[in-house]
Records
---
Amino acid sequence: MKEIFIKTEDNIKIGLNHYSKNNENVVIIAPGWCMTKDSFAFKGISELFAENYDVICFDFRGHGKSSGFYTFMSKEISDMNAVIEFAKNNNYKNIYVAGFSLGAGVAVICGANNKNISKIIAVSAPYDFNKIENYMWKKEAWMETFRKFELGRFLSVRPSVILHKKIKPGEIIKQVTAPTLFIAGEKDPTVYPWHTEKLYNEAVCKKDYKLFQGGCHAEDLFLHFPELFGKYCLDWLKD
């Protein structure tokens, strides 16, 4: 794995981990809010996909090794487009994007506009940011964080204090043409599964929907059900 830094169109430094074995296809992994490319969960997710593909896992602005401030699915579109351009310049035949939580929302928005994306995996994607439940008092919301506490990850997060205009994934889902796998957790306390199910129902691309019975939020689905999560994702990409 090699750590690389690139720049966005608005001059934000984006840190990424490039797992390269000279495969012809690459999976871009987009973490959600308060998660980084070097966190325990996303190192594991990167290694899962790296068994079959090259992998690029990156920090959105305001997280980890990237500069700037996080804008909650507003300017992060530029971050993902810059990473996709990096993958394109590395001459990959297919560019797949696996997004988690708000990272999944960004993946859906980019999928409506960036035709370099071959397939999408959207895990716990919000239909509308303003309708995210985020019930932080539920044990499912903090259980995994408590179990694997990463002080450095939390200290690296820099949210913007300015409210930015956002595109709602639900507003543009019909414009997504890349085949998309929608994944949700039945007991997600942060982004209730209706968000992902509604995106799935309104999508007009080739699509599939997987609901993890008893599952929680985003990367927790990988941590709690690694074999089943891996099977769903890898089968979708090779199909």
---
Amino acid sequence: MAKIIAGLGTSHVPAIGAAMDHDKTQTPYWKPLFDGYGAAREWLAETNPDVVIVVFNDHASAFSLELIPTFTIGVAPEFQPADEGYGPRQVPVVEGHPRLAWHLAESLILDEFDMTIANEMPVDHGLTVPLSIACGQPEAWPFKVIPLAVNVVQYPPPTGHRCFNLGRAIRRAVESFDEDLKVVIFGTGGMSHQLQGERAGLVNKAFDTAFLDGMTGDVDRLTKLSHTEYLREAGSEGIELVMWLIMRGALADDVKEVYRHYHIPASNTAAGLIVLENQP
């Protein structure tokens, strides 16, 4: 059977992708951030998953205010990098795993999660930047990818508790698949940041650190954070962290932290990364 063996949480700051695309990763500003990604890339290469489920949010590339699904799963054979106004990123086309994706869609819907099914969906920096963070700049991504998009742009987004339970349902769905696959799940977005208004540029290191600690130490506390707490403590875009809870819910109850990296600033935000493995 298929099995989720590990999870990775990471920010998906668009400027990180731009730094890679324009060969600026070793400039004085960016080098401390990118130096911290090496250990995670080595870990992922050694883990060598067959499939990665990437939980991300769209930034008005595939969806707009005309259509706002809460949870969307991509079931296509491939997903093209989106044009976000300056041309698509020159990264590999994302190759899907339709058979597992359709199995997930069926299992999740019958498990009473109302998934939107996407047979075609461009993927923007919310998905491609995490792949670049984890894999560098390969000619092709080294695994199949199943995109799972979450609405964290238009109020109301799903709660952390709902996202955690979706992760649990994803674990059940993967383990009922009849092919022997190693699966890793990414939770992306965050950490604390705000892009507009009087609090633009907000970073709350204490909140971010406590969130990272809670991924192994007290995930129950994280699932109970309200929308208001995210807004107050982590800024208007800090709500993206609920997507990390989908990743955490998809793992075993008992996990170990393999690696962590946290850096300020990355553009106008903090950038965090954590690698978690199921305990044997």
---
Amino acid sequence: MKIAIEAQRIFRVDKHGMDMVILESLKQIQKLDYENEYFVLVKGGEDRCLEETDNMHIVEIHCPTYPLWEQVALPRAVAKIKPDLLHCTSNTAPLYCSVPLVLTLHDIIFLEKRQASSKSWYQEMGWYYRRLIVPRILNKCKMIITVSKFECKRIQERLNLPEERITSIYNGFNAYFKPIDADPDIVKKYVDTMDYFFFLGNTDPKKNAVRVLKAYSLYLKSSDKRRKLLIADLKESFIDEMLHANHLEEIKPYLSFPGYIVNKDLIHLYNGAYLFLYPSLRESFGIPQLEAMACGTPLIAGNTSAMPEIAGEDAVLVNPMDEKEIADAMLRLENDEVYYNEKRRYGLERATRFSWHNTAKELLSLYKKVLTK
């Protein structure tokens, strides 16, 4: 088989969820498959995180904007390569494609009612772009992949897709996420203590940053230890806006907000954290849950969407709309050592059920199925 895989943004330095999913899947495909020929279609970037092999070629496509890259430059490159199929990996795909198309549709959050618009112009434009493109390409897809059973059912019902055209393939997490002694020099680049809570958020309203801050304020009022809160991926100006709007300015001295965290440093921050906060309003999978659990860090996750499916029924699951319930979970983990160690052990065991090796094996099986129909 001759397979083209769109992985436009994997060479950018500040990679996010969908970029990591296809990057780790490609690395595992390199280890598993020496027979089929792959063409990985990317935009240039500084982080050359994937090396070519004899049967996996990297094709750089240069174009100034995402829509033009995907709708004009990508189809032209595919027409030159003439693959047996094209796998687009980040929710959208070309409206016109000369070969059979497989699409990974991570979620349909962009078709659902929003809590609020995004503060990020880039995210806001992406939201409108997906709403425009996705409904127009679904009928052209030979197969649609999503990342959880929850999301599979949600997409199928919302978009009236037949069962045989959509399937779920779980994400994995990088095997280097494991219990280690956190390096103080790395941790202290981001937070000035070795005893803290960790929240991985961004400006997307679904990450629930405002309620996390409200819950943390309640926690501070009841805790004797008053552990600091490390907040990743949020700028000080955005945090200041939330604190001011919700009259929470007094908690700012307890917050650490270094912005983007380099992926290789995350293992030290997970391991250094007392607990990991992930009470999102909506997730199709939630890789950070697995990364934290694999490091032996107890997790507080939302009880909505796919989070219970991935974290499991014995995880600490809370109503993400209820800041008091989030705060109570933080306090219980802090004050009940037996309960804390129980959740630590549970997370370590739960994480073993997921791997990028399994993800890649299922992708290879799906490619074969599509091309032998």
---
Amino acid sequence: MQKITGIDIQEHDQSNRILKISLENDIIDKLIFPFNKFDLTALELKPFTRFTLAKSLDDLTDNKLSKLMNSIIRDRSTGCFIIGPKSITAKINDKFLVKLSTAIAHLIGIPNHDAMAGKYYARFHVKHEDTSDSYLRKAYRNMDLHTDGTYVKDVTDWLIMTKIDEQNVEGGETAMLHLDDWEHCEDLFNDPVGKRNFVWGSPKSKNIDYKVEHPVFSSDEKGRPTISYIDQFPEPQNMEQGIFLQRLSDGLEESKNKIITKLPVGFSVIANNYFWLHGRKPFKENKELSRELLRIRGSFFVN
């Protein structure tokens, strides 16, 4: 494993497919000044400022961090890493974490416009009470394994989820599954129903006024399975599609090869959206429960 000054790189304790990248205090300290140059409004309204943040981060690693992250995220055998500050100090607040996530994203590719939030990223809370129309904010329900971007026209190659804060939390662990570790992948991938177009919609909170059509399963350039699926948004048009989706859902949730892990506050998980699925376990009920997350998703740079 390559060494990068100011960065600690280890295999994740639950999967050799996932790397854990910890930024040493020295790197964090040196990011404070360039990050303070831009407030969040500037980042939201002037896209080029986001690349300035990304360059500040990469320059501190002699431009090795971007190479490492891209080599992981594009590699079928890995395709996922978590990254964040080795130590959480008073300097690391929510605005700093938005900027750090922005910098990381812009070393990988171009973020999509997030219609739910109206900008290139979305921040959302999970709390005790919820009246939303999506599993995203329902604390006490299992969020089943899924990929992102199933209901939009944008290419969604990757996603970033950052844990900005959490209080009074038990449970709510992140669930991850790599397609190549899924026991039922071959069976469902070879079912012709999964390779025909499905209709995909979305609830009102997503602010998407159209529907898209695409299959659940496709193939990469080497013929290996890729997936685009979330349980809440397909609109089966016949019994065949409905029963296929039920088999798919059951097969994913029953998998014994899911990775169940707790993402530390301040860390981001970055995953390839074609062969990694992600979800969340239910929280233990608590009226004071609070978690804030940030989401960015987008496409790879073409070069």
